[in-house]
Amino acid sequence: xxxxxxxxxxxxxxxxxxxxxxxxxxxxxxxxxxxxxxxxxxxxxxxxxxxxxxxxxxxxxxxxxxxxxxxxxxxxxxxxxxxxxxxxxxxxxxxxxxxxxx
Length: 102
What we know:
By secondary structure, the chain is α+β, with helices and mostly antiparallel strands. Helix content is 19%, strand content 43%. The chain has 2 helices and 8 strands. β1 (23-27) and β2 (34-40) form a beta hairpin. It is globular, with a radius of gyration of 12 Å. It starts with a helix and ends with a strand.
């Protein structure tokens, strides 16, 4: 389980230059956990850590698309009013790795 978790996190980091080299901004409009947005050029992502089980609403307006995906689980949700709601379970390990659906 630990290997699978870190594999997902590191694959997300490898896919998105914004994680390592982008600007960092804390997202204060989240219902649980710590959320931050990273941006470098056209690469924009939002990460949530420490989310508790249940529905978690995240401000994803910085990504600027109509749909976003949690790369951790593959779940795609529609953005409404700049926010997306994901269901967090124990399988998420409290982690959301949010990217634009292209």
